[in-house]
Design a protein that fits this description.
Blueprint: H1 3-10, H2 14-21, H3 25-36, H4 39-55, H5 66-84, E1 108-109, H6 145-151, H7 156-167, H8 172-179, H9 183-200, H10 213-228, H11 231-235, E2 238-245, E3 251-254, H12 256-265, H13 267-270, E4 273-281, E5 284-292, E6 299-310, E7 313-320, H14 322-325, E8 333-335, E9 338-339
Parallel strand pairs: 2-7
Antiparallel strand pairs: 1-3, 2-3, 4-5, 5-6, 6-7, 6-8, 8-9
Helix pairs in contact: 1-2, 3-4, 3-5, 4-5, 6-9, 7-8, 7-9, 8-9
Domain RNA polymerase sigma-70 region: 20-88
Protein name: Sigma-70 family RNA polymerase sigma factor
Family: Belongs to the sigma-70 factor family. ECF subfamily.
């Protein structure tokens, strides 16, 4: 940050302010997403935070870095949003609730139905490594669906503390200053938050590196099995404790037996899917799912599928509603040879 740029911004130069905050926009957007679990809410809250920063720039005294100052404003805006904004609770569901004509038996009701995926395209330029010796998670690991799902189970203050300490690498005293807490309160919240996240982590082998030959091979096998509509071929690719999720519905299925029953139950619906358009979400392979209209022959997007791997197996499949697909640049309608509209 140059003194000249800060001076221009303080003098009312909006372009200078935009240049001042641009290096931190991606990590600020991710901070909002991790806190709120929603891509839409993250965008709205980031805009509010940047407006607050613009309006309060005269109050920036330079005792901390501009990055730390922006983290303070953004984190507290997220905390305010979590305290005052009603979340998006899914409609109450039970095992007897019919969905699209089928009633598969549930193995679990999810606790974080509002979680949305995050496009990998928005991660461009994000550093691969941890931001400092205090951090426990690399930046990209801390956006995986497993991490995000566990994070949403934490109370807001624990969530903020864990992100500031273990993702952004702030020391306890620094995090306490950012949040207006005592250092002992930060340490206590961090201990509880780490215990929750550690309990949610599995001992499964790591996923293949993104874009590696191993990931490409596994992805090709998965797509072939998925589009063949062969339930047993699909089940053969899964870990023993595979998860199948469908937010915003609170339906969750765990294990091979429940996954098999689920895919058998939804076969009439799933067999309509004939095309999958690749993308990536939260560091995982993902696809727009397209079903053919029997009258027009056009392909219509019916949702977004995100798959997480463990070693050479699928450990989680998450189907997101169609509204999410637009955030990934996926067209609503396609012809076989390209986009229609």
């Amino acid at each position: 940050m140059s003194a000249e740029l800060l001076h221009r911004a303080r003098s009312g130069d909006r372009e200078a302010f935009a240049e001042l905050v641009e290096p931190y926009r991606t990590e600020l957007h991710l901070l909002c997403y991790r806190m709120l679990g929603s891509l839409q809410d993250a965008e709205d809250t980031l805009q509010e935070a940047l407006l607050a920063a613009w309006m309060g720039l005269e109050g920036f005294e330079g005792r901390s870095s501009i990055r730390t100052w922006l983290h303070r404003i953004t984190t507290n805006r997220c905390l305010n949003a979590l305290r005052t904004t009603s979340r998006r609770p899914a409609a109450a569901v039970t095992a007897a609730t019919p969905v699209a004509g089928w009633v598969p038996e549930l193995s679990h009701l999810g606790e974080v139905p509002w979680l949305q995926p995050y496009p990998d395209l928005l991660l461009d330029g994000l550093p691969d490594g941890a931001p400092g010796p205090e951090a426990r998670y690399e930046a990209r690991e801390a956006v995986s669906l497993a991490f995000m799902t566990a994070l949403q189970l934490l109370p807001p203050n624990q969530r903020a503390v864990l992100l500031l300490r273990d993702v952004f690498g702030y020391r306890a005293a620094e995090a306490a200053d950012l949040l207006g807490l005592t250092e002992s309160a930060v340490n206590s919240a961090l201990k509880r938050a780490r215990a929750t996240l550690d309990a949610s982590r599995s001992a499964e082998p790591p996923a293949p590196a993104p874009g590696s030959a191993q990931e490409v091979a596994l992805t090709d096998r998965f797509v072939a099995a998925f589009l063949s509509h062969d339930v047993e071929a699909l089940i053969a690719l899964m870990t023993d404790d595979v998860w199948v999720r469908m937010p915003p519905l609170a339906f969750e299925y765990r294990g091979l037996d429940d996954a098999r029953r689920f895919f058998a139950a939804v076969h009439p619906h799933r067999s309509q899917i004939t095309h999958m358009v690749p993308t990536r979400a939260n560091g995982h392979p993902a696809w727009g799912e397209y079903a053919r209209d029997p009258v027009t022959g056009l392909l219509h997007c019916i949702g977004l599928l995100v798959v997480a791997y463990a070693g050479d197996r699928v450990r989680e499949l998450t189907h997101f509603e169609i509204g999410i697909a637009a955030m990934f640049g996926l067209p609503r309608t396609m012809r076989d040879q390209g986009v229609f509209q």
